[in-house]
Amino acid sequence: MSQAAEFFVPLRARILVLSDGVAAGKREDHSGPAVRTLLESRGWAVDALEVLPDDEQAIRARLELWTAIAECDAIFTTGGTGLAPRDVTPEATRPILEKEIPGLAELMRAEGVKRTRRAALSRGVVGVRHGKLIVNLPGSARGARESLAAILDVLPHAIDIAQGRTEHREDQRTGDLSLSDRTEQA
């Protein structure tokens, strides 16, 4: 029996900031860096952080491209989830999803309204395409950070399931059933 070394495989994320003002250089973005900081503090690897204007076709094309890349587990968008005429992130996201996960979007809003009732105005969606999660977050740094924090603990399990890792094992410490951990044999 060979001695195989185990190592931790971090979840891999990409962040897409959606804002006409940021894309035009008229405004500085704070939401993308806030999401990156939170993800990296939890052991995620962030492979890309890009900015696009609020253009439905461009957003959809980028999401389709990124979900086709094998080196990505989740895409987090910030911005474009409100009620303004150019807020089109959910409209760009929803048609390409293979499965929508309304419970995660509902959880983000439910946690958000505990801090501000305006969180109920967020129209962000969460779903799966090609085994990758797509999560629409608000455009403010605070809203993006708090929304992500509300669901972050559930995302590894959601990614495991979406990527076909469905074997449940009992945690010897707690007795809880969980999916296999994110380790690989070297």
Structure description:
The protein has 186 residues and is of the alpha/beta class. The chain is built from seven helices and ten strands. The protein has a single domain (6-185), classed as Molybdenum Cofactor Biosythetic Enzyme, Chain A (3-Layer(aba) Sandwich). The strands form three sheets. Strands 3-2-4-7-6-5 form a six-stranded mixed beta sheet, sandwiched between helices. Strands 1-10 form a two-stranded antiparallel sheet. Strand 8 (168-170) and strand 9 form a beta hairpin. Helix 2 runs parallel beside helix 6 (141-151) and helix 5 crosses helix 6 (141-151). The mean pLDDT is 90.
Number of domains: 1
Percent of residues in beta strands? Answer: 15-25%
Terminal Cα separation, in Å?
14 Å
Within CATH, the superfamily carries the name MoaB/Mog-like domain
Low-confidence stretches: none
The CATH architecture can be named as 3-Layer(aba) Sandwich
* Spatial ordering of strands, largest sheet: 3-2-4-7-6-5
Helix % is 25-40%
Largest sheet: 6 strands, mixed
Question: What count of helical segments does DSSP give?
Answer: 7
Task: Return the CATH class.
Answer: Alpha Beta
Output the CATH topology: Molybdenum Cofactor Biosythetic Enzyme, Chain A
How are helices and strands ordered from N to C?
EEHHEHEHEHEEHHEEE
* Strand count: 10
Query: Overall 3D geometry?
Result: globular
